[in-house]
Amino acid sequence: MCSTDCQPGRVIEGGPVDWWTGPGSTGARHRSSHPRHGKLREVVNVSLTIGIVGLPNVGKSTLFNALTKNDVLAANYPFATIEPNVGVVGVPDPRLDKLAEIFGSARKLPATVDFVDIAGIVKGASEGEGLGNKFLANIRESDAICQVIRAFKDENVVHVDGKISPKSDIETINTELILADLQTIEKVLPRLVKEARIKKDKQPQVKAIEEAKAILDEGRTLFSAGIVQGGERAALLHELHLLTTKPFLYVFNVDEEELTDDSFKAEQRALVAPAEAIFLNAKLEADLAELDEDEALELLQSVGQDEPGLATLAHVGFNTLGLQTYLTAGPKESRAWTIKKGATAPEAAGVIHTDFQKGFIKAEVISYQDLVETGSVAEARAAGKARMEGKEYVMRDGDVVEFRFNV
């Protein structure tokens, strides 16, 4: 939503902080020249990344190329990816098309997910084998882990273990992550146990670490055991930066005929539950990325699909990171802004600009569905669908918002 009357403290054209009016404004549009600014301060971005991992030659870099339409190194030999390649991928959002139509927006900006293509992992990575140390460092910096699992058959693409076995590949990767976490725990636990004898406040942390170690010793990831980032138990483990507390999702790189094989897909989903499983053909996705919309749709329909697998991956990745979007719109742009689920209105305002959060007064909110049904902001207001929300309001996915603030 946007303001076109330039009232003090309103977001102008509902987008980036190019223009706003400050306290005491005469109503003319201007750039902020507040003495505390000098120039516009940095926007508070919700910058979270998903690390794409997998054994060598599973199609990981081909998938990444399709995700970003960038031609990073993708060769048929181990360790083709030596430095992590980072790509920002738009999350498809048809709501922006409708908002742009209503507001006459010049452009549409979707929410994004950052994917990092990380060097291939091999057995022994936790001990530094192959590029193991680099792999572990790069994945430690990611907020979620996307495992690419090979299920396609191709005699021209060698498998590092000499056989195609999704179950075995999953176990190999998980084992290395589990071993890395056990090494981390074994380094710190003896010291913490000694400290806990004197400092009673350390005892809950020691108990949580011992419970985590028991789970890992059983060969299970902490994520699969329900210990995930953001949870109470994970908070006690936070300073250890354990890899297997990160959210997991799995991409099965399959042959085209398996895209419609429900029995096969159910079998693979069972291997990775409770994580999400996505099925795609990386080569097909790379081809789709080069086609226009009509050609891509025709190709998808020829293999029994409704949308690209990458669109599903972007949405699942977004949800896996615990993210949601709110929307702003105006003649300049219609835009989806990324926030963590549970964010309050001031926190959401801070994603646009820090001053919006600090000087937050209130937010005018219309649900996307109500806005579409009424056809305009004016009609939504007339129908009683617009509401003023204060600092305690918890944002909902699809809120169309205009923030009012004072700086």
UniProtKB/TrEMBL annotation:
Listed GO MF terms: ATP binding; ATP hydrolysis activity; GTP binding; metal ion binding; ribosomal large subunit binding
Task: Write down the InterPro entries for this protein, in alphabetical order.
Answer: ATPase_YchF/OLA1, Beta-grasp_dom_sf, G_OBG, GTP-bd, P-loop_NTPase, TGS, TGS-like, TGS-like_dom_sf
Q: Which residues bind ATP?
A: 57-62
Q: From what superkingdom does this record's organism come?
A: Bacteria
Location of the OBG-type G domain: 48-300
Instruction: List the record's Gene Ontology CC terms alphabetically.
Output: cytoplasm
* Record-given protein name: Ribosome-binding ATPase YchF
Organism of derivation: Streptomyces rapamycinicus (strain ATCC 29253 / DSM 41530 / NRRL 5491 / AYB-994)
Gene name tied to this protein: ychF
